[in-house]
Specification:
single chain; about 240 residues; alpha+beta; Transcription Regulator spoIIAA; Thrombin, subunit H; six-stranded antiparallel barrel; 6 helices
Length: about 240
């Protein structure tokens, strides 16, 4: 295989070409060198890759793990149709973030940086909590729309919430949610990960239920939630005067 390195918008792009197989340790070496030199955002371009076998998938997985273990981010773009099956069979298509074009891949890093800025804002705003019963629909990510469960969401913040309802999910399950933030901004579609399951003895009044952390949330959506929380907290404060 051949690797060309270039940089764009603060991201290191690896243009891969040829065959990725057992003789492709160069990818691991290149990624290790980049990480050692502080280049933590890496985008792999597969447009010129002709072939990937089982050992090649293992090489990619090792390189990806090296990046993640060093708190970096690796994403993939322009994967040819005839190669997508290799990622699907290995299950890595559910782990890797893949995009159809270089621009989409670069924008994903940009959105992450915006979210990081929001997270780094004073804790007072980031962790403001709105104790308001809000209607929510939720299902396992990838399930049919007919499988949406209707419930109530409490304790909303910019990073997560608590959902009262049926306990049929497990820790780390990824969910698709429809938040009804009325009257404005209205319905919002988000993904979340289950990070807490209620205990009947500890939370008798809120059981069953689960704590969720928002997952892969675009920065414009997170801003809408923050604005919704601020508006409702201001409204509550006015009514209490």
């Amino acid at each position: 295989m051949e690797i060309s390195v270039r940089r764009k918008q603060g991201v290191t792009i690896l243009d891969l070409a040829g065959r990725i197989d057992v003789d492709s340790a160069l990818l691991i070496e290149t990624v290790g060198y980049l990480i050692h030199n502080g280049e933590m955002d890496i985008l792999c371009n597969f447009e010129e890759v002709e072939f990937i076998d089982y050992m090649g998938i293992s090489v990619i997985a090792v390189a990806y793990k090296e990046v993640v273990n060093n708190s970096g981010r690796m994403r993939f773009v322009n994967i040819p149709a005839h190669l997508k099956g290799s990622f699907s069979i290995s299950g890595l298509d559910r782990t890797f973030e893949m995009y159809g074009s270089e621009d989409l891949g670069l924008n994903s890093f940009k959105e992450d940086r915006i979210i990081e800025k929001i997270k780094n804002k004073p804790l007072r705003r980031r962790f403001k909590r709105l104790f308001l019963r809000i209607k929510v629909e939720y299902k396992a990510a990838g399930a049919k729309d007919s499988e949406f469960i209707h419930g109530d969401m409490l304790d909303l913040s910019a990073i997560g919430a608590y959902i009262m309802g049926r306990n049929e999910f497990s820790l780390n399950d990824v969910l698709t949610l429809k938040l009804h933030l009325n009257p404005k901004p209205g319905e919002i579609d988000v993904q979340a990960r289950v990070v807490w399951l209620s205990d009947k003895q500890i939370q008798p009044h809120d059981h069953p239920g689960m704590g969720i952390e928002f997952y892969n949330m675009p920065s414009p959506i997170q801003k809408k939630i923050l604005d919704f929380i601020d508006r409702n907290l201001a409204f509550s404060a006015t009514n209490n005067i």
